[in-house]
Automatic annotation (TrEMBL), chain A:
Domain of life: Bacteria
UniProt cross-references to CDD domains, sorted A to Z: PBP1_SBP-like
Signal peptide start-end: 1-27
Family the UniProt entry places it in: Belongs to the leucine-binding protein family.
Protein name: Leucine-binding protein domain-containing protein
UniProtKB/TrEMBL annotation, chain B:
Species for this entry: Halomonas chromatireducens
Biological process annotations from GO: amino acid transport
CDD domains registered for this protein in UniProt: TM_PBP1_LivH_like (cd06582)
Protein name, UniProt field: High-affinity branched-chain amino acid transport system permease protein LivH
Membrane-traversing stretches: 12-37, 72-92, 104-129, 149-168, 196-220, 232-254, 266-285
Record's subcellular location: Cell inner membrane
Keywords on record: Amino-acid transport, Cell membrane, Membrane, Transmembrane, Transmembrane helix, Transport
Amino acid sequence: MTFIKKTLASSIAIAAAAALAATTAQAEISDGEVRIGYLADMSGTYRDLAGPGGLEALRMAIEDFGGSVNGAPIQVYSADDRNSADVGANTVREWVDTRNVDMVAGMVASSVTIAVTNVLKENDKLGIISGSAASSITNEHCSPNHIHWVYDTYPLANGTAKAIVDQGGDTWFMLTADYAFGHALEGDVTRVVEESGGEVVGGVRHPFPTDDFSSYILQAQGSGAKIIGLANAGADTVNAISTAAQFGVVEAGQQLAGLLVFLNDVHAMGLETTQGLLLTTGWYWDMDEEAREWSERYYERMNRMPTMVQAGIYSSTMHYLQAVEATGTDDTATVREYMMEQPINDFFARNGRLREDGRMIHDMYLAEVKSPEASTGEWDLYEILATIPAEEAYRPLSESQCDLVQN
Amino acid sequence: MTMIFGVPLAVFMGQLLLGLINGAFYALLSLGLAVIFGLLKIVNFAHGAMYMLGAFATLLGMRYLGINYWAALLLAPLLVGLLGMVIERLLLRRIGHLDHLYGLLLTFGLALIFEGTLVNFFGVSGARYPTPEALQGGYQLGFMFLPVYRAWVLLAALVVCLGTWFIIERTRLGAYLRAGTENPALMQSFGVNVPLLITLTYGFGVALAAFAGVLAAPLYPVSPTMGSNLLIVVFAVVVIGGMGSILGAILTGLGMGLIEGLTKVYYPEAANTVIFLVMILVLMLRPAGLFGKEA
């Protein structure tokens, strides 16, 4: 009974807070606590790019903020979504129903994210997505209840593919993971290659996941294309790149283009295998003094350098807490609106701003993986070749299918 | 250019060779499973984990003890084989009289524990093991570039497979083994230490998996989940070959590698499922598997 009473009481409190916010924008923080849920793959394929490291980044943000907002303590819950949409949605539903969580952070596999954002929308809570790639999250799946922070497939194709065609890599062979994410990325890349004056001469769709890429690499070699585009992620990309190294693809004159490659992937494969690989990233730990400073603090706690996703979790949590502090409430609409009004410039984002579709746009970077000779340490892996300005990197609002934009 | 069903002959030949190399892997792994099932009647779900441990022993041995690849080829299977013997003594023996299902669940649980523990320490991205210097580079065969290391894997796997087959089917020790599992009481009365024989057999079976792990270390990223990805395919190979048939495991392993290789050329989307399709067909037509004896 106390549970029902509590839920009832908190519902009334939320309703009252929302009503108050609408009139005076002076609402209180619900239950006297800011409650944040961290949902990510903690044990599977995507563990290293977000996982426990992302949770640590979230905790760092809260500590740096002082542990409380306007006197209200900040409470963190965390869970492993096991890359399952069902597990993710049920966890968040439970958090919202029984613990009155205000904001959910993390979120990696796009399928889980889309399921979770539906739950958030039904319950009018806020989600800040840092790990997912699908650009549809702020396009056809956009909602007033979530924000997409670090990157998506649109700038990945835009950055890497365009730069490579401009450098003379005009014939492509696509190696695509045979599921929604791979198809979307392949489509984006094909469009960018053709628009830049190049041509996709062939491709193969491999099952997800695949351990042995030798056969596909042989087909790519046989195609004679200058560039082998990897429209896959995680272990698949890692396997494809290392297999290509064994078959002497680069020595024979072809180049690889990694369309979604994380720092931990490159670290795992080593520079011998990955040197010369071009990739697009939303952030790199060694890109400037501010980034380095934060990353070194992170390194002391995790003994690894952070990925762009982990840095993004810190950055977005900080921005959220500042909004809660400034507005004095954890009400979703009020906080989101304040977050949209404030420009974002921190150690993570340059020229960042939040658009009405929920996309946080910021400068992206074209990077090249260093050679073993050029690298000075275990984590000295990328050289930043170019900055892709925020407005050019992401899908323009004029092409958006998000109904928040059309209104 | 000569074409085979729309694919140039050269590409076709290359794919066949790669299929054979992958098949050698399947053969090596399914051989260990077949030995353990055939002689001990244990459905060893920890086999993938043992393969993974072999690769990890190789990696960590190099990183922390400076053990090179050639020494690892011997030491890693030995170490994992010993671990297997401890597991057999302490755990598997106690449930030997129960239904097969208990052994399956126990070994599956063990596999999860090994995997989870290593994920906790090393993450899931895995690490690279460098190709040994003597095996770097490749041969230009005309129709394809064959990395030396892959040729070595094919050779090493075939030699070990045939050696195992020879020991079990053609030597006195093998005869004891087969008799010991057929009628342990009788063998015991002849003065043969059957429990020791069983422990050694399990150790040998998992050592084969660890040997495959050492061979795999320079090919794939060494990661805690590498074994579980492969395990189901290898089980399908064993079922197709006939549970417990040594020769069946070797020949089916090679054959499935070839079939999978060809699928990758003609319809890559089905490459992961083709082996299971074959399994269904075989089970419908010959329920005991291609080389299995009808019970």
